Structures are given as structure tokens and as C-alpha cells.
Amino acid sequence: MSEVKQTMAGKTQCNRTWNIVKNVLLALVFLGLAGAVIGLSIKVNRTTSERLGGEAYSIGILDAGGEAKEGETAICTRKGVSVSGLKCELKKDAKIKYQIFFYGQDGKFISASEELTEDYDGSGVPEEAKTAKIMITPLADEDGKVSLVEVLGYANQLIVSYEK
Known about the structure:
Order of helices and strands: HEEEEEEEEEEHE
Structural class: alpha+beta
Distance between the termini: 75 Å
Number of domains: 2
Strand content: 25-35%
Radius of gyration: 30 Å
Shape: elongated
């Protein structure tokens, strides 16, 4: 009878040990999965692309030297955006043309693209360029002047995306 009690006590002790090991292993797996999810979310946030909205534009022009000037015939971005991952997509039936102006780390103008009427895939960015500004010019504006009410309409015809 004492042998049976010892055997039962040994099995109970073995079950307790196994439960502890199992719980520790489950905790380690859970912590590993949590760490992986956190790591992936941080990486995704670093390479998330942004899109320009209508609020990023104001009425004005960029001259041949990349300088912002007063003018009522176009709209341009107020600030430069990263050239990393820069893409521009015209919406179907868009009635605009656009031009991309490239600037270096110090904000110094480098060059400008031709006036574009097709999508831009990010090729042809000057090697030393860090930021870009976009100028949108309507193709068929009734009075030839962009009004404050028209800014959003013209800006929404071009989808500009870039990496943060």
C-alpha cells in the first residue's frame, strides 16, 4: 500500500512539474509573438506612405528656379515632400498638368521635371534630391485663374504619395 502512495505522490509531483514547464513555455511563446507584432508595427510605421491632400496646396506658381511666386494660374505645395517613394497618379479624366521641382538637403533648387500629363513612377529623381514640390496647372480653367474654391478640385485630380 505504501508503494502505491509513493507512486501516486510521484505522479502528482510529475504533473505539477509538467504544468509549470508548460506554463513557462506558453509564456515564452506569448512574449515572442508580442515582440514580433510590436517589431513589425514599428517597421511598418517607419515605411508608411503618405498622401498629399488639398490642404497641402496654395494658389501660386514655382518659377524656373524653383522659387515660389505669386500667381493665379496654378497651385503648388506649400512644403516639400520626401522624394523617397514619390509617385504621382492622375485620376481618370483629369484636366490638369503638373510639374515636379526637386530640392537638395539644404532646400536648394536642383531641377524640375517637364510638364507631365501622365503618371509619374518615381524614376528620374536627381541623386542629390531630398524633397520635391508639386505645381499643378489646370488645362481648361474658364477664367484662367485658380480660385480658392477650385484648389481642392484640382489637387484631388492628382494623387501624390511618398514615404515618410
